[in-house]
Amino acid sequence: MDAKLVNPIIDAFMDIMPQMGFPIPKRQRIYLQDRNVISNGVTLTVGFTKQMQGRVVYNMTEDTAKYIASTMMMGVPVTKFNELVQSALREISNMLTARAATNFAEMGLEVDITTPQLIIEEDHTIKISESNYLTVEMEVGYYKVDIALAVDRNL
Q1: Is 49 helix (H, G, I), strand (E, B) or coil?
Q2: At what angle do helices 7-19 and 83-106 cross, to 10 degrees?
Q3: ∠ at Cα 40 (154, 13), nearest 5°?
Q4: Is the pLDDT of residue 52 over 70?
Q5: What does pLDDT average to over the chain?
């Protein structure tokens, strides 16, 4: 994976979250993992196509997902994952990844994104790479979101 492809995704998170009413995110650490993402409870997966291939997985606990959905819905309390809550989570992942695609376009890469896939299940395994991928830990409002990245230029 080309390290230059990480920053547009991190930049998208840093830019979009405050616009949606969240505190300014903080990057905690970046580390390599092998092939599979193990869900922390809620995962949102979005793919990249055209001049890039791969996926980004937003991985978080149920409490973090409820916080994000509640903030997206102007503070409405979230107690369960009904359709409205699931829609808010898909929308934020769509907004984050669409901004990343715009950032890639500014680098000269034509990129489309796929429809977000939402999985609510702890310890669910998602294979996102044939080898290593990067995970970026982000903190937003004392909650943690792991962003798993397995992307490369499609030559």
Answers
A1: strand
A2: 130
A3: 50
A4: yes
A5: 93
Q: 81 φ, ψ to 5°?
A: -90, 70
Instruction: Tell me how far apart the alpha carbons of residues 36 and 105 are, in angstroms, rounded to a whole number.
Output: 28
Give the H/E segment covering residue 96.
Answer: helix 83-106
Say if residues 39 and 123 touch (Cβ distance below 8 Å).
Answer: yes
Pick the CATH number of 3-153 from 3.40.1550.10, 3.40.120.10, 3.40.1170.60, 3.30.499.10: 3.40.1550.10
Q: Tell me the CA end-to-end span of the chain in Å, nearest whole number.
A: 13
| 22-36 mean pLDDT | 94
Give the residue-averaged pLDDT of 88-102: 96
Check whether 124 has a pLDDT greater than 80. Answer: yes
What's residue 155's pLDDT?
57
Contact 135, 149 (CB under 8 A): yes
The full set of domain ranges for the chain reads: 3-153
pLDDT at 110 over 70: yes
Q: What is the DSSP letter of 6?
A: T
Is the per-residue pLDDT at 44 higher than 60?
A: yes
